Structure formats: structure tokens, C-alpha cells
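Name: Imidazole glycerol phosphate synthase subunit HisH
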Amino acid sequence: MTKTVAVVDYGMGNLRSVSQAVIHAAEGQGIDVVITCDPEVIRAAERVVLPGQGAMRDCMAELAASGAKEAVLEAAATKPLLGVCVGMQMLLDHSEEQDTPGLGLIPGRVQRFRLEGRLQEDGSRFKVPQMGWNRVHQPRPHPVWNGIPDESWFYFVHSFYATTAQPEHSAGETDYGLRFTCAIARDNIFATQFHPEKSAALGLALYRNFLHWNP
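Structure predicted for Imidazole glycerol phosphate synthase subunit HisH:
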């Protein structure tokens, strides 16, 4: 029986690159990838991917306007859900970016990098947004990390970073002027600040692990 993954299309984010990566990861797996904002399609899917890019306030507003918000909340309570980039930040309680409430699915908040005047080890200034490859430390095992070595490199583009209220919800950490949470996990939810779809073979492996994860 064919299974379905819904990639939520609410008019924001790197939808094309995320959906293409998920489609590639699903090839030959008996999994259909559907790009949709239809609440009933999201509810019917076995698992859900929530991308996001840009300002969090805009993402939250567009998710509500699309009609998909309640279906995403229902999915987060009952089936595997993967958030990507701002799609991760949206899962937390609040962002200081335009004082924006999140979905409140995982306790925590989103803050802006404050690295003005700080120098990196090579003497160059920290730039905001962080843009480029960085190492990800895995503080604890998780099925979505299967086959992905600790301290692997993933691709980041972001000016805001997450802080979880409970340390056990931090599934990945990165150093950029400070150590911050770059992946969060709780029960059937996993999410990354970095972009797996821009992270070559290991990013594809992460998507593939999510497609086979049975929390």
C-alpha cells in the first residue's frame, strides 16, 4: 500500500528545493510526495514536512491564512512531522523576530544572533546571517540521525537561532559565536534549522531516515 508524505505549501519558504529533495529520497520506497495546503490531504498523509523561509511572522500569518494551520497541529499530535528552517522555529513558543508567537509545540524561544564586533578564530568578523556550512553535534542518538556521523557538516542560512526550554528537546547543536540548538526533537516531531535539501548526500540521508522513522 502506497504511503503519502505531505509537504505543506502555504506560500512561504524553499518549497521547491525541499519537495524535490523529499521526492528524491522517496524514490523506489513506495511513498508518494504531495505538495499541498489542503487540510484534508494533510490529515490523510502518513507524515508531514513543514518548510519555512523568511520572516517568522509572515510564515505564521500565511500558514493560518492557507487554512493548513489546524491540520499541521493535528499532524504534530499524531504522526511524524519534520520542520525545516523557519519551519523549525515555528514549532517553538515565541520568536523575538517582530515579537511573534509560534505554534507552541515544543517549549522554547527564538532569538537573534548578537555578534557585533565579535571575531572568529581566523580573525574575521562573525556575519549575520550565518550563511554556509557548519558542523552539527548530536547530543544524543535519534533515528533521524541513523547513518549520519556526529559532527557532520550541514548548510545554514539564518539570522535567528532556537533555545529549547528543556535540554532533552535539543537534538542537534552548532557553534556560531555561541552554541545553539539547530535540531529539535520530541516524540513524533523532528526539525532542523539547517537545510537538509542543500546539504548534499547527508541531507538526503536525513530526509530518507525521516521517511522511515516510526516513533
